[in-house]
Design brief:
α1 runs parallel beside α10. It is globular, with a radius of gyration of 22 Å. Among the domains are: about 140 residues, FAD/NAD(P)-binding domain; about 150 residues, FAD/NAD(P)-binding domain (3-Layer(bba) Sandwich). The chain is of the alpha/beta class. The protein is built from twelve helices and 23 strands.
Length: about 450
């Protein structure tokens, strides 16, 4: 027994960490939440930020603001690096590269996943992923800059390459990005240029499967494919992207055959995910089995075998084929908070049971898919259902109200009000900017 209140340390301020902390608000515990961005990000709407429909403020909220009313919750800016399970201590890195430590009685790992390039890290330079606000702003810059550069070029192969956009991965994020790029080109930018016709832009969507949106029912996936093709998205299925470079991509058919080259100066990557370095480090130091992507095997209550004081939630859970979706992270966070509360009163933990509340994917303006058990909706009704689901999950009433207002304006007009981007100052000194670009290797 100790003479201090139970110290709960949560790594990650995504859906899992956010809901776990909320579930412990006002409890007889001291909660510390460490996150590398100091804000909660609504990842399902990142692509709308990247394509200019929504602003950063619509899809994110400072964690300090979120927990301002909970005196027992402390939020810290940092990136978890190392775990000492014997002393129950985590070492984290500040943005200026210095480190600090936090002790815990209960550790909740909700660090999430990062983009995976399938052992081809060199692809990232030319094909950004879609996981963070920085990713969204990077993609926004690349998308709109491509049209600007094309405007200055004469007709020919160089201009065509700048007006060709390649998306690797036919899951929800890839489908949503591809649809938004075509919609942006055909509606938003259609009458704004003089030398080019933005609607001539090609959008190529590559995936190794035989259909897009494999997690949806086949009939819904087919509806999505039809909608994408009517928008002008070119589907290239049954292929793997095997090379990404400055000038374009190389794809290889799964069934065999010659490589195919595509000249595309803008490539976006949504093809896979893998565990963040801290999660792999955790599995190593506690001896927990993990799969190829780094998902950690856990007990029925989401704790790590042999370490009941360590929980893993969200995308990192390698059990029962749990999906890597926001709803699973939310439910996992609330479940762990309940386990901690029950133990405070001497009650046993309960088994985690995930309740599938459905899936939704946005295709284009007025077209979305909604799948809830046997209910399958597409088109405009699916779009309305998609909107209500996402608005309900946004953090903060202000975020919901402003997002609804923005969407209403978008319905009536083709403009995108958040298209601003900056190329950066080539004279800026790197030591004036905080960055996470170093110390990215896994701890030894």
């Amino acid at each position: 027994m100790t003479d201090h209140r139970t110290r709960v340390l949560i790594i990650g301020g995504g859906f899992g960490g956010l809901f776990c902390a909320k579930g412990l608000g006002g409890a007889d515990v001291d909660v510390t939440l460490i996150d590398r961005s100091a804000g909660h990000l609504f990842q399902p709407l990142l692509y709308q930020c990247a394509t200019g429909t929504l602003s950063i403020g619509h899809i994110s909220r400072p964690l300090r603001e979120e927990f301002a009313g909970h005196r027992n919750i402390t939020t810290l800016l940092g990136e978890a690096l190392e775990l000492d399970p014997d002393s129950r201590r985590v070492t984290a890195r500040r943005p200026d590269e210095s480190t600090f430590t936090v002790d815990y009685d209960v550790l909740v790992v909700a660090a999430g996943m990062r983009q995976s390039y399938f052992r081809n890290p060199q692809f990232e330079q030319w094909a950004p992923g879609m996981k963070t606000l920085d990713d969204a702003l990077n993609i926004r810059q690349r998308l709109f800059t491509a049209f600007e550069i094309a405007e200055t070029l004469p007709s020919g192969p160089d201009r065509d390459a700048w007006l060709t956009f390649a998306v690797a991965g036919g899951g929800p994020t890839g489908v949503e990005l591809a649809g938004q790029i075509r919609e942006m080109a055909t509606r938003t930018l259609a009458n704004e240029f003089h030398s080019i016709e933005p609607e001539d832009a090609r959008v190529l969507l590559f995936d190794g499967g035989d259909r897009v949106l494999k997690s949806f029912a086949p009939e819904l996936a087919d509806r999505a494919a039809g909608t994408l093709q009517r928008l002008g998205v070119e589907l290239r299925l049954g292929v793997h992207v095997t090379d990404v470079r400055r000038e374009g991509v190389t794809v290889t058919p799964k069934a065999g055959g010659p490589e195919e080259q595509y000249a595309a100066r803008t490539v976006l990557w949504t093809a896979g995910v893998e565990a963040v370095p801290f999660a792999r480090h955790l599995a190593e130091v506690v001896g927990a089995p993990s799969d190829r992507s780094g998902r950690i095997e856990v007990e029925p209550d989401l704790s790590v075998a042999g370490h009941p004081e360590i929980f893993v939630i969200g995308d990192l859970v390698g059990r029962d084929d749990l999906p890597g979706v926001a709803e699973n992270a939310m439910q996992g966070g609330l479940h762990v908070a309940s386990c901690i509360r029950r133990e405070l009163t001497g009650k046993p933990r309960r088994r985690y049971r995930y309740r599938d509340l459905g899936s939704a994917a946005y295709i284009s303006r007025g077209n979305a898919l909604l799948q809830v058990g046997p209910i399958r909706i597409a088109g405009f009704p699916g779009w309305l259902g998609w909107g209500f689901i996402h608005i309900a999950a946004l953090t903060g009433v202000r975020n919901r109200a402003s997002t609804v207002a923005t969407w209403m304006a978008t319905i009536g007009r083709s403009s995108r009000y958040h298209r601003a981007f900056m190329l950066g100052d080539s004279h800026a000194t790197s030591d004036q900017r905080y960055t996470w670009s170093t110390c990215t290797e896994e701890p030894s």
